[in-house]
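Task: complex structure prediction.
Instruction: return structure tokens for all chains below.
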Amino acid sequence: EDQVTQSPEALRLQEGESSSLNCSYTVSGLRGLFWYRQDPGKGPEFLFTLYSAGEEKEKERLKATLTKKESFLHITAPKPEDSATYLCAAYVSGGYNKLIFGAGTRLAVHP
Amino acid sequence: KAGVTQTPRYLIKTRGQQVTLSCSPISGHRSVSWYQQTPGQGLQFLFEYFSETQRNKGNFPGRFSGRQFSNSRSEMNVSTLELGDSALYLCASSLIAGQDTQYFGPGTRLTVL
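Output:
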């Protein structure tokens, strides 16, 4: 069964303390790996799409990487405004094409 | 460029009623997907529409249905509401169907009493 697992479930960081969020996937026919940020009461906000192993993308303090089994979201020198839930999702093909989401990592950055 | 809009933003219904939610995609986007988000199950795929045709469907009962109009706007309907249907319903649009990036709306918060 296709599955996406994120860890840790929750992460507390001090401002400036870099860390990484993990997204491991067990899917057949991966067509793309997506990262979203979601603030409370709002819809997910698109961050990155990764299509092949070895691919990396950066945006401000965030950098996403992809291997054949997992993806990482690296956060460098985070600020309190980076506090949110980060979701990863795998787009799979075959049968029903669909986006499968992980449960998310709740990140809290304290000043 | 306007984003994905969803109406209404909040709804309160009672068990047994039915509800219709609306989604207007980003201009030019032809694919609309619907998701249900709950604290226990996270984000789960409901269905995807492209060019007025349902392309994919998730593992939800037949009480959940949808449609897409010629202008790409989409509606989803839930009949015979149950308490467990309380959730944030999210709509996402993309240029085309497939692995293209999906952009989400703010969601409709449905509470079933």
